[in-house]
């Protein structure tokens, strides 16, 4: 076994000295992002919770840290250009730093990549190739391109220089939070979690580090249990930035060594966290960046019991507006602030006006109305109407339903998002 391979298996392929050396290169490009208090999560958790807002980082994510260090180490060796594979955040970071250095950048992104991320990458000056099913296939395409062109591959996570660059975030956490007790960090391929955990635990072993994966694609628990990289299937997820089916050969032992616990969160929890961060903290965070907040909000993380601050890393903020709107609508429905009703009524003039008048009197605000005749078991003289209404809360939504039924209309709620008795 080579010395490098042995270091990788031991989990010391990257050291605190590497992270400290990377910091000077990172600071040439990246911002020192702010730390914000979260009163809402702090109250729910019973201890102080803060957000490390890497969603406000240059290019919208922490990825610029690792890329800056990698390209600094390559120096003239990157002159022929670089090739990367990414769901979007690593791509934007590579394109941004490459443009500053005046070198070319080619990017391989999944065919299903976020439109916002691919367009931003092109705007930074990179050549983008869309294709492949996920990061793993894009990495194979990127490696083939390197063999064709002689350019340099900048791996999104499994590279000592990249891991060390991401670790600079951990140094900032220790310096900025005097009573740091717990760090909650997203986990995809492992570059961020490995770098942050290494830095934090090396400086203060008493600080706990919890990494969070999307339940839809979570290879680390099985890989750690078996002591080798295990590939899992990947279901669609809001957290596309951490949708990696197999851990890195370098990141797996580092995560196993320095991360105290790994938890997973579901798609509903991720969506709720995205809206919570936007609504309560005024922070726009993508699904991958919100998994830490989702884990804390859903009580998947054991919080400090003897005081101290929990830092939740919001790793990125690059999200398509259409996806965000879907998450907002879903959240409003689950919270009883958006009510969808299907009403059957006789096909006589004035019936819809009568229903809308009663709904308006109940305080509901009409957002949408659609006449539906196809695909429903309606009498030949019946009309079906779907109504989307804005309501204040579940109790108000239940009142609106009772008022419509009291007026004699046959109405049913579409979906059962909130648990409130709506029968008269």
Describe the structure.
The strands form three sheets. Strands 1-2-10-7-8-9 form a six-stranded mixed β-sheet, with helices on both faces. It is built from 16 helices and 14 strands. The longest helix is centred in the middle third of the chain and has 17 residues. Strand 3, helix 5 and strand 4 form a beta-alpha-beta unit. 43% of the residues lie in helices and 18% in strands. It is α/β, with parallel strands linked by helices and 424 residues long. It folds into three domains: 225 residues, Rossmann fold (3-Layer(aba) Sandwich), CATH 3.40.50.1100; 91 residues, Rossmann fold (3-Layer(aba) Sandwich), CATH 3.40.50; 79 residues, ACT domain (Alpha-Beta Plaits, 2-Layer Sandwich).
Q: Provide the CATH topology of the largest domain.
A: Rossmann fold
Instruction: Calculate the terminal CA-CA distance, rounded to whole Å.
Output: 74 Å
Number of domain units: 3
Helix vs. strand class: alpha/beta
Topology, number of strands? 14
Give the topology.
Blueprint: H1 3-10, H2 16-26, E1 35-37, H3 39-45, E2 49-53, H4 63-74, E3 82-85, H5 89-101, E4 105-109, H6 115-123, E5 127-130, H7 135-149, E6 152-153, H8 160-176, E7 180-186, H9 191-203, E8 208-214, H10 220-226, H11 251-258, E9 261-265, H12 267-280, H13 287-297, E10 309-314, H14 321-334, E11 338-346, H15 351-361, E12 365-372, E13 382-390, H16 394-406, E14 410-413
Parallel strand pairs: 2-10, 3-4, 3-6, 4-5, 7-8, 7-10, 8-9
Antiparallel strand pairs: 1-2, 11-13, 11-14, 12-13
């Amino acid at each position: 076994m080579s010395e490098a391979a042995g270091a990788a298996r031991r989990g010391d392929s990257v050291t605190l000295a590497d992270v400290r050396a990377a910091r000077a290169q990172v600071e040439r490009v990246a911002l020192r992002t702010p730390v914000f208090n979260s009163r809402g999560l702090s109250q729910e958790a019973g201890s102080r919770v803060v957000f490390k807002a890497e969603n406000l980082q240059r290019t919208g994510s922490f990825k610029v840290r690792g890329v800056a260090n990698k390209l600094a180490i390559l120096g003239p060796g990157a002159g022929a250009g670089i090739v990367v594979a990414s769901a979007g955040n690593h791509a934007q970071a590579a394109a941004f730093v490459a443009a500053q250095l005046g070198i070319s950048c080619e990017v391989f992104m999944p065919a299903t990549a976020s439109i916002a991320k691919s367009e931003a990458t092109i705007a930074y000056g990179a050549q983008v190739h869309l294709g492949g099913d996920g990061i793993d296939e894009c990495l194979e395409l990127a490696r083939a391109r390197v063999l064709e062109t002689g350019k340099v591959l900048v791996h999104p996570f499994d590279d000592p220089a990249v891991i060390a660059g991401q670790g600079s975030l951990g140094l900032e956490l220790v310096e900025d939070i005097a009573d740091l007790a717990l760090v909650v960090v997203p986990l995809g391929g492992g570059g961020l979690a490995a770098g942050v955990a290494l830095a934090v635990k090396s400086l203060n072993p008493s600080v706990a580090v919890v990494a969070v994966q999307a339940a839809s694609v979570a290879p680390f628990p099985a890989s750690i249990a078996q002591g080798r990289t295990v590939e899992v299937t990947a279901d669609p997820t809001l957290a596309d930035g951490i949708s990696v089916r197999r851990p890195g050969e370098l990141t797996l032992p580092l995560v196993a060594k320095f991360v105290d616990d790994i938890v997973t969160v579901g798609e509903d929890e991720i969506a709720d966290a995205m809206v919570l961060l936007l609504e309560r903290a005024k922070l726009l965070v993508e699904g991958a960046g919100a998994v830490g907040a989702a884990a804390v909000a859903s009580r998947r993380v054991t919080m400090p019991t003897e005081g101290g601050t929990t830092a939740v890393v919001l790793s990125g903020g690059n999200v398509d507006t259409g996806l965000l709107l879907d998450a907002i609508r879903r959240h409003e429905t689950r919270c009883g602030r958006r009510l969808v009703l299907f009403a059957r009524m006789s096909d006589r003039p004035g019936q819809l006006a009568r229903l809308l008048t009663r709904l308006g009197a109940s305080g509901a605000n009409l957002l949408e109305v659609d006449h539906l005749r196809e695909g429903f078991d309606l009498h030949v003289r019946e009309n079906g109407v779907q109504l989307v209404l804005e309501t204040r809360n579940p109790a108000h939504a239940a009142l609106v339903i009772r008022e419509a039924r009291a007026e004699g209309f046959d109405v049913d709620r579409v979906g059962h998002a909130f648990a409130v008795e709506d029968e008269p």
